[in-house]
């Protein structure tokens, strides 16, 4: 029976449950290992006049106290622009920014050393908000643009016109394993860095540059992460570099593991956005022109902010054909920790804006938002070209819309909600059906490549190494299935090895939902070469024992851990015996596979091209109930329908859909980042930062996939699943906005994101004198 398409268990599921799964801080300490910490800036913006570490160095148990002057190579790093310092030298840019690294044998020694360091700083004016940054013209990188058609003509001839400013907040990654690294020096100046990272190659590159080494002297490995969600795509670099610096200087192993509080205080979040929109539309709600100026809070340095903004522009249309579009995106520099990648990578912020626009069009015209969405939806043979001129091929969006509306009884429930809201003043209900069209590929062309190393051993077992990292999403399980399926072996015969730059060089980060696409296809290609060699060996063997057969590799079949010639199916070899025969004949049993995504290219000078190989589509219906006295939002029911092509592992994909949606639900409802006037994060623990609890999961939660055999572009006809479900959670937010339309009278309801209890109560207070009824809906 084929393994691909089967719901086998996550390869670490049992180890996760029993606690046997080894994470970085579970690695046994070496006898001479050092603990690493740092002294961070107490101010968000300041000039550094003096750093006095003289009192810290003599403390018992303290082995090293290091400043920027101790960095042997480049003190600056960054994935795009090298604008972030490992240890601040002249200026502090955010509260908690590392200035002095300390290393010692005990936590007590570290705390004493940190307290003994004296900093002389001169405060300078700090900027925290997008408005302040715009006023001061503090930007990161160029403003990006995408334009199509003529927005001016659309606005000049508009039947209807709306404009406004939409604000969406940031989000903490809240991975269970914090940022962590262990650096171990070796002879010849070499160093091995064990890092909880989505991007081992970047750790290797920046560590070599920082330490003044060559890249072949640095190895970065990652067995697994306790969650990443984009937060470990680039920001694992700082702890890895600090540990590596200490190890390089002392020639002793050095470990750095942030506490949860410290991690939340000093690491970057999802970008907060402020977006001004203008939209023209006709009497039926069809959008004729759309202009959006996106501004994001990038924090103190570039990190991946420009790439995040680029994806925002590429998702501003979401699932809708808009003939005239003018989009711009600007990243603002502020004195907060550098904002970074987060599941969805700028897509959620864009989708939230256009779905807000749809809701406002519906409210303005007195229409059902579902009908407005359906009328604007991309078509299958026409009205199917994006603002950046990519054709939306094999478009399943119309089918998803209509199928889910029927399955979820959308129209009937909408009628029930109207009746409910008309007869109670204590509660308020809302419902919304929202689609998503999420482009799959890295928007930076060079990242769309991967390699895999497959080794077959003499007992018939297999090891696979790829550049992809496992953070709980099931990448290794899917690769295991792909490889085992190629040789008709049980999954237990295949072991996916820890990711290491020693085995797979120049790898792309595990991100963009594309890791199975890239690494799985690379592994598949390596298997194809090995399978052909084994088929040739088997063909020669069967021909040698049966005079009636000519050697024909094309007739060799792999089935149930055995191999046979289809012309003589009764005669077979076990897979392990075939491997032994191949080895005896000096046939190579190891192979490297390589894959580069075809057809992806985009030009930001023109704002045109094909940035994506394909799109993952889905729809969600969310129903919410609001306590009008407290503003508390409860999600009563969610129905999701997605097109994932032909799933490699339906159970893992289902888990990704549910987990992604709930994480997105937190972003749009409860996860509010609050800062003091000084710029210090106030919500830096589970007591003050509200991620969804198990009790917040909708009591009715339906997830289904459509059958789409027409997807031939990707490995085994599958589609990526990691990020798209998170964007579907915008349906929860639009359901809250829909609920507010019942009490906003003649006003189009306004709502910022997240729709916390405070935000909802604030909006309800604005409409408290309005009648409890919705405008006429046709």
How is this structure best described in words?
The protein has 778 residues and is of the alpha+beta class. The chain has 3 domains: 208 residues, Aldehyde oxidase/xanthine dehydrogenase, a/b hammerhead (Aldehyde Oxidoreductase, domain 3, Alpha-Beta Complex), CATH 3.90.1170.50; 334 residues, 2-Layer Sandwich (Aldehyde Oxidoreductase, domain 4), CATH 3.30.365.10; 148 residues, Aldehyde oxidase/xanthine dehydrogenase, molybdopterin binding domain (Aldehyde Oxidoreductase, domain 4, 2-Layer Sandwich), CATH 3.30.365. Helices cover 29% and strands 26% of the residues. It has 19 helices and 31 strands. The strands form 8 sheets. An 8-stranded mixed β-sheet has the order 3-7-1-14-11-12-13-22, with helices on both faces. The protein has a 5-stranded mixed β-sheet with strand order 9-17-16-15-10. A hairpin with a 5-residue loop joins strand 29 and strand 30. Helix 5 packs across helix 6 and helix 8 runs parallel beside helix 9. It is globular and about 85 Å long. The C terminus is likely disordered.
Write the layout of secondary structure elements.
Layout: H1 13-18, E1 34-40, E2 46-52, E3 62-66, E4 76-77, E5 84-85, E6 91-92, E7 98-104, H2 107-116, E8 118-123, H3 130-136, E9 139-148, H4 151-156, E10 160-168, E11 180-185, E12 191-195, H5 200-211, E13 218-222, H6 237-250, E14 254-257, H7 260-266, E15 273-281, E16 287-299, H8 305-314, E17 325-333, H9 347-365, H10 369-376, H11 397-407, H12 410-422, E18 427-440, E19 449-456, E20 462-466, H13 475-486, E21 494-496, E22 499-500, H14 515-545, E23 556-559, E24 562-565, E25 568-574, H15 575-584, E26 590-596, E27 601-603, E28 608-610, E29 614-627, E30 633-643, H16 650-669, E31 700-705, H17 724-728, H18 730-740, H19 757-766
Parallel strand pairs: 1-14, 12-13, 16-17, 20-21, 30-31
Antiparallel strand pairs: 1-7, 2-6, 2-8, 3-7, 4-5, 9-17, 10-15, 11-12, 11-14, 13-22, 15-16, 18-29, 19-20, 19-26, 23-24, 24-25, 27-28, 29-30
């Amino acid at each position: 029976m084929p393994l691909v398409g089967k719901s086998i268990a996550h390869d670490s599921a049992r180890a996760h449950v029993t606690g046997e799964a080894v994470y970085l801080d579970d690695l046994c300490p070496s006898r001479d290992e050092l603990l690493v910490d740092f002294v961070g800036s107490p101010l968000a913006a300041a000039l550094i006049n003096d750093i006095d570490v003289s009192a810290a160095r003599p403390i018992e148990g303290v082995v090293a106290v290091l400043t920027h002057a101790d960095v042997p190579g480049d003190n600056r790093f960054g994935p795009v622009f090298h604008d972030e310092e490992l240890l601040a030298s002249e200026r502090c840019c955010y509260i908690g920014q590392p200035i002095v690294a300390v290393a010692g044998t005990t936590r007590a020694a570290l705390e004493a050393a940190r307290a003994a360091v004296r900093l002389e700083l001169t405060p300078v004016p700090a900027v925290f908000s997008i408005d302040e940054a715009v006023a001061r013209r503090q930007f990161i990188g160029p403003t990006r643009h995408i334009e199509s058609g003529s927005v001016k003509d659309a606005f000049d001839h508009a039947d209807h016109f709306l404009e406004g400013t939409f604000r969406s907040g940031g989000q903490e990654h809240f991975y269970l394993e914090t940022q962590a690294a262990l650096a171990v020096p070796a002879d010849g100046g070499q160093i091995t860095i064990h890092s909880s990272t989505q991007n081992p190659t970047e750790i290797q590159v920046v560590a070599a540059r920082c330490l003044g080494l060559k890249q072949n002297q640095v190895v970065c490995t990652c067995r697994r992460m306790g969650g990443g969600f984009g937060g470990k795509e680039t920001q694992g670099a700082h702890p890895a570099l600090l540990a590596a610096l200490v190890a390089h200087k002392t020639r002793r192993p050095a470990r750095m593991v942030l506490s949860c509080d410290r991690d939340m205080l000093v690491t970057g979040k999802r970008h907060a956005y402020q977006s001004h929109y203008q939209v023209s539309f006709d009497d039926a709600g069809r959008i004729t022109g759309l202009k959006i100026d996106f501004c994001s809070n990038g924090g103190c340095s570039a990190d991946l902010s420009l790439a995040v903004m680029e994806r925002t522009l590429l998702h501003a249309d979401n699932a809708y054909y808009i003939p005239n579009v003018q989009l711009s995106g600007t990243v603002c520099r502020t004195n907060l920790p550098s904002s970074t990648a987060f599941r969805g990578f700028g897509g959620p912020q864009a989708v939230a804006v256009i779905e807000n626009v749809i809701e406002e069009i519906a409210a303005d015209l007195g229409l059902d938002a579902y009908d407005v969405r359906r009328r604007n939806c991309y078509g299958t043979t026409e009205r199917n070209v994006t603002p950046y001129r990519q054709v939306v091929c094999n478009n399943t969006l119309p089918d998803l819309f209509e199928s889910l509306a029927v399955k979820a009884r959308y129209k009937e429930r909408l009628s029930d909600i109207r009746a409910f809201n008309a007869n109670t003043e204590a509660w308020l209900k809302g419902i919304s059906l929202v689609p998503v069209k999420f482009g799959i590929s890295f928007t930076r062309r060079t990242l769309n490549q991967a390699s895999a190393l497959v080794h077959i051993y003499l007992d018939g077992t297999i090891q696979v190494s790829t550049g992809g990292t496992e953070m709980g999403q099931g990448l290794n399980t899917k690769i295991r299935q792909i490889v085992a399926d190629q040789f008709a072996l049980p999954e237990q015969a295949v072991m996916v090895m820890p990711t290491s730059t020693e085995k797979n060089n120049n790898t792309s980060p595990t991100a963009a939902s594309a890791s199975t696409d890239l690494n799985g296809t690379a592994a598949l290609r390596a298997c194809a070469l090995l399978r052909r060699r084994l088929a040739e060996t088997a063909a020669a063997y069967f021909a040698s024992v049966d005079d009636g057969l000519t050697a024909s590799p094309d007739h060799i079949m792999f089935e149930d851990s055995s191999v046979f010639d289809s012309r003589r199916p009764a005669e077979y070899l076990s897979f392990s015996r075939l491997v032994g025969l191949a080895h005896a004949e000096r046939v190579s049993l190891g192979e490297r596979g390589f894959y580069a995504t075809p057809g992806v290219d985009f030009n930001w000078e023109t704002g045109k091209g094909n940035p994506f190989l394909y799109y993952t589509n889905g729809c969600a219906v969310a129903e919410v109930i609001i306590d009008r006295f407290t503003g508390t939002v409860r999600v009563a029911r969610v129905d999701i329908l997605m097109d994932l092509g032909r799933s490699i592992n339906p159970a893992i994909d289902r888990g990704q859909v549910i987990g992604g949606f709930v994480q997105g639900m937190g972003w749009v409802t409860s996860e509010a980042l609050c800062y003091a006037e000084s710029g210090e994060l106030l919500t830096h623990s589970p007591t003050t930062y509200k991620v969804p609890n198990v009790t917040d999961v909708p009591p009715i939660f339906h997830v289904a996939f459509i059958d789409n055999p027409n997807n031939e572009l990707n490995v085994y006809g599958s589609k990526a699943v990691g990020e798209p479900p998170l964007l579907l959670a915008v349906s929860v937010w639009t359901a809250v906005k829909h609920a507010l339309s019942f009490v906003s009278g003649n006003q189009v309801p306004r709502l910022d994101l997240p729709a916390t209890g405070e935000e909802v109560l604030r909006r309800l207070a604005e409409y408290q004198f309005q009648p409890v009824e919705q405008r006429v809906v046709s």
